[in-house]
Amino acid sequence: TSPIQIPYAGIVLLMGASNSGKSTLIEQLKQQQVIAEHESLSSDQFRKIVGNIDYIDWRRPSREEGEVMYQQYKRISDQAFKVMQDVLIARCRLNKLTIVDATHLQPEDRALYITLGKRYHVPVILIALDISDQTLIERDRNREHPRGRQRVKQQAHQFKRTIKGLRSEGFGVVHVIKEHKYADIQWQRSTN
Ligand code: ATP
């Protein structure tokens, strides 16, 4: 199979549930020198920068606690995405590559990047990590800070619901990577 091309400049959107391996893929691309250290932005990183959120334990709060936790998280997350978007826009203006590491499970989340790509005349490609519920849950259990089974299952469900329409959303290229193919994929950076 031919390698997946990471564009010279533009936006690469990662998509996948928690534990699908988005951050791990970015680390791998850096190690293989396909991308440079500052060519990725992650929503986790910006939630830390704007709101001190390192990790939230979503497991088994009471209904009321869960609601309060979510409201606080949402306020910080909204600001985090705003700032991340500004950085992304600056990078597009300078014709730099940016890989965006966030779940991007809703069509509305993704539509923004299509708009930005058109506005700044840069390519926008999507890389979706299609990982089974079983694997996602197993990885979550083995993680230092588990996201919680419920949350992972909910995200896996959102992923499946939205995957069919992806190719008509306006991305330049869409790669949906299946779990069993992942290890064999070669990554390559375009030079212009
Ligand atoms: P989040 O959205 O919660 O940040 P993520 O999609 O970025 O999740 P990672 O942080 O990359 O996921 O990985 C989550 C866990 O799954 C880590 O413990 C990681 O070691 C493991 N993992 C990721 N990719 C793989 C893989 N290909 N094979 C085995 N384990 C993996």
What does this structure look like?
The strands form two sheets. A five-stranded parallel β-sheet has the order 3-4-2-5-6, with helices on both faces. The model has no long low-confidence stretch (mean pLDDT 95). It has 192 residues and is of the alpha/beta class. The chain is globular, with a radius of gyration of 17 Å. The chain has helices at 22-31, 43-51, 63-93, 107-119, 133-141, 149-162; strands at 4-6, 10-15, 40-42, 97-101, 124-130, 173-178, 187-189. It contains six helices and seven strands, in the order ββαβααβαβααββ. Adenosine-5'-triphosphate (ATP) binds next to α1. It comes from Paenibacillus kyungheensis. This is Polynucleotide kinase-phosphatase.
Q: Tell me the helix content.
A: 40-55%
SSE succession: EEHEHHEHEHHEE
What count of helical segments does DSSP give?
Answer: 6
Rounded radius of gyration (Å):
17 Å
What is the overall shape? globular
The secondary-structure class comes to alpha/beta
Strand content: 15-25%
Number of strands: 7
User: Major sheet: order of its strands?
Assistant: 3-4-2-5-6
> What integer is the average pLDDT?
95
Largest β sheet strand count, sense and barrel closure: 5 strands, parallel
SSE layout and pairing:
Blueprint: E1 4-6, E2 10-15, H1 22-31, E3 40-42, H2 43-51, H3 63-93, E4 97-101, H4 107-119, E5 124-130, H5 133-141, H6 149-162, E6 173-178, E7 187-189
Parallel strand pairs: 1-7, 2-4, 2-5, 3-4, 5-6
